[in-house]
Design brief:
The complex is a heterodimer of chains A (422) and B (251). Helix content of chain A is 0%, strand content 44%. Chain A has 422 residues and is mainly β. With 251 residues, chain B is mainly β. In chain B, strand 13 and strand 14 form a beta hairpin. Classes of the chains: A mainly beta (422), B mainly beta (251). Chains A and B meet through loops of A and strand 10 of B.
């Protein structure tokens, strides 16, 4: 069982110690304590490197001290001739005498006691990332305001994750910016814009101060951007190493700012905005777009009007215009609609006449009606030719949309009356 | 037809055959037949044919039968009880509207109406054509269409003919300016030809083209001179009647 104190005496103390003796004492004090080991008497054969007789003090398998020879107290008020303090709670003391001691040596008397170890200062490595608090038998770590202690009870971090940005324009900065950002932190930010927008980041060089990369080029503190199918960074250094603007192809972005234990840099600030996705501008001789713009983007609405002689057909209904909206995927709605030449259709037949089968029945086509000659003739002299008009009707210059009439030819016998004279 | 010759319907494609009583008519439009009032008097649904030279049943079967929509007798035609003693044939003109349009072709075609110009005034000596299936010198009824060419003459010539009808006296017959007299050398129309056209060539036209100058109306004696209703006097009435009765037919 660990003890708070103890006494170690060489064999046969205070008499001369015997030859050829090796004795080991295992000292253990409770956890959280160190060992104060002090000798009140030390009288051993002196040899080079204490090769003959010695008292070894070993900790963790490593010889901390090796004593031999004689010691006397330096202070008349203190019996201590030699003392050590070890920040460990276990030690081994090993007394060794060889086979030959011509003189009479009385050995040693040592005492140990448990002393509090200041874990915060006694070691090279500081156990806490921020504040270390020592107490007898232990220590605890604590954190500055707005920091929290991680589960390891040693490192402090800042709760800087979870923010989701949905506005079309915004600004994001590292915690405490422009004051130094916290160590041991992983800050995650999300930008989530609605479909139809593409994120553009702007980071000025002077708005970026993150612990520079090491000699191998690795960033210990880093800022990384991840969009759909794109990654930018990691970035670190004094001054933003990337471009002034980063244009992503995504409406969402994940930002990760990772920091390690060291560094006193002010951090970073960025601005973002959402660029509406453009839709292609389609130039057609058959239609007019209103409004006329050099560029169309998400949510833009255009009225597409067909020029004369053209129409858009949806189902069985034809119209001269339609509306189209630039959608979030960069495509126009109603993209299947287009202005097509007006089709006047098959011309209507007429009584006692005919119309030749037209090669085409679209806007601009021409057809000719004729009457069944020689028994019928066209009432309007120029009434035979019709053209497909812009309104989808066959139109004659004189009759308009009215069909021509074939009128019987009067008074013309097929055969002359022959008087048969005898 | 007296003094005429057998002919083909192609020479008189406007000729309409009225079945009973036998008579004639002139096709003037797809929907209208011009005839004499006395032909359709008392018959609101005459049976008519066009397009056939012969009156044989099998031929008529292939001809176009015309269905009557309505008969419109001239309002000034004087109706009399005894058709056999009639002496007043003034305004002997009527129109028959057809239900369906007539299909024209080589055997069926209308005859033109006279125009208003003086060129269309019938004059003595003008040679006109008549046609029909009426009585001939030898037969009361004929099967094949016959035609004849005869000149217009003065109305006095028709007046001077002695009566054939013993029931009527020569002086009782009415002669008006609505009548044309025509005939020569025995060329004449007769019973059964009534209503048919007296066709004259259209003036100032190069190709042969005819208009209906008269309608076979009456005569004192077949084979002498015949009287024809002067159609030019009735053109306005004809056009007005056609106009007023055109459009969708009422059931």
């Amino acid at each position: 069982e660990p003890t708070m104190y103890g006494e170690i005496l060489s064999p046969n103390y205070p008499q001369a110690y015997p030859n050829e003796v090796v004795k080991t004492w295992d000292i253990e004090v409770p956890e959280g304590f160190g060992i104060h080991l002090y000798f009140t008497h030390l009288d051993m054969e002196l040899s080079e490197n204490c090769a003959y007789d010695s008292v070894q003090i070993i900790s963790g398998g490593i010889e901390e001290e090796r004593l031999c020879g004689q010691r006397t107290s330096k202070s008349p008020n203190s019996p201590t001739v030699e003392e050590f303090q070890f920040p460990y709670n276990r030690l081994q003391v090993v007394f060794t005498s060889d086979f030959s001691n011509e003189e009479r040596f009385t050995g040693f008397a040592a005492y140990y006691s448990a002393v509090d170890v200041n874990e915060c200062t006694d070691f090279t490595d500081v156990p806490c990332s921020h504040f270390c608090n020592n107490f007898i038998g232990g220590y605890f770590c604590s954190c500055p305001p707005e920091y929290f202690l991680h589960d390891d009870m040693r490192t402090c971090g800042v709760n800087c994750s979870g923010d989701v940005f949905t506005a079309l324009i915004g600004e994001i900065a590292s915690p405490n910016y422009p004051n130094p950002y916290p160590e041991n932190s992983r800050c995650e930010y999300q930008i989530r814009l609605q479909e139809g927008f593409r994120l553009v980041l702007t980071i000025r060089r002077e708005d970026f101060d993150v612990e520079p990369a090491d000699s191998e080029g690795n960033c210990h503190d880093s800022l990384t951007f991840a969009a759909k199918n794109q990654q930018f960074g990691p970035y670190c250094g004094n001054g933003f190493p990337g471009p002034l603007t980063i244009k992503t192809q995504s409406n969402t972005l994940d930002i990760v700012f990772q920091t390690d234990l060291t560094g006193q840099n002010k951090g970073w600030k960025l601005r973002y905005h959402g660029d509406p996705i453009p839709c292609p501008k389609e130039i057609s001789a058959n239609s007019i777009w209103e409004p006329e713009k050099a560029k169309y983007v998400f949510k833009d609405v255009v009225k597409i009007t067909c020029v004369d002689g053209f129409e858009v057909v949806e189902g069985n209904v034809g119209s001269t215009s339609f509306y189209s909206t630039c959608q979030s995927n960069g495509q126009w709605s109603n993209s299947r609609l287009e202005c097509q030449p007006v089709d006047c259709g098959v011309p209507e037949p007429i009584e006692n006449g005919k119309v030749e089968d037209p090669e085409d029945t679209v806007f601009g086509s021409v057809i000719h009606y004729t009457c069944e000659e020689p028994y019928y003739y066209m009432e309007q002299e120029e009434g035979g030719e019709y053209h497909c008009a812009a309104n989808g009707s066959w139109v004659n210059d004189q009759l308009g949309v009215e069909l021509p009439k074939c009128i019987p030819v009067c008074g013309v016998p097929t055969e002359p009356f022959k008087v048969q004279q005898r | 037809i007296f003094g005429g010759y057998s002919t083909k319907i192609q020479s008189f494609p406007w000729q309409v055959y009225f079945e009973s009583p036998r008579g004639g008519g002139a096709l003037i439009d797809e929907y209208w037949v011009l005839t004499a009032a006395h032909v359709v008097e008392g018959n609101s649904d005459p049976v008519m044919y066009v397009g056939s030279t012969l009156l044989k049943i099998e031929r008529l079967r292939n001809a176009q039968r015309l269905i009557t929509e309505r008969v419109i007798i001239h309002p000034s035609w004087k109706q009399e009880d005894d058709l056999n003693t009639r002496t007043n044939f003034d305004n002997d003109i009527a129109l028959v509207q057809l239900k369906d349009p007539v299909k024209m072709g080589p055997t069926v075609a209308p005859i033109c109406l006279p125009e208003t110009s003086s060129d269309y005034n019938p004059s003595e000596g003008d040679l006109g054509l008549i046609s029909g299936w009426g009585r001939t010198e030898n037969r009361t009824n004929v099967i094949q269409l016959r035609g004849a060419k005869l000149p217009i003459t003065s109305l006095e010539k028709c007046q001077q003919v002695k009566v054939e009808n013993p029931k009527a006296r020569s002086n009782d017959y009415v002669f008006t300016d609505n009548m044309i007299c025509a005939g020569e050398k025995g060329v004449d129309s007769c019973e059964g030809d009534s209503g048919g056209a007296f066709a004259l060539p259209v003036p100032n036209v190069k190709d042969p083209k005819f208009y209906v100058a008269g309608l076979v109306s009456w005569g004192k004696k077949c084979g002498t001179y015949g009287i024809y209703t002067k159609v030019k006097n009735y053109v306005d009435w004809i056009l007005k009647t056609m106009q007023e009765n055109s459009g969708p037919k009422k059931d």
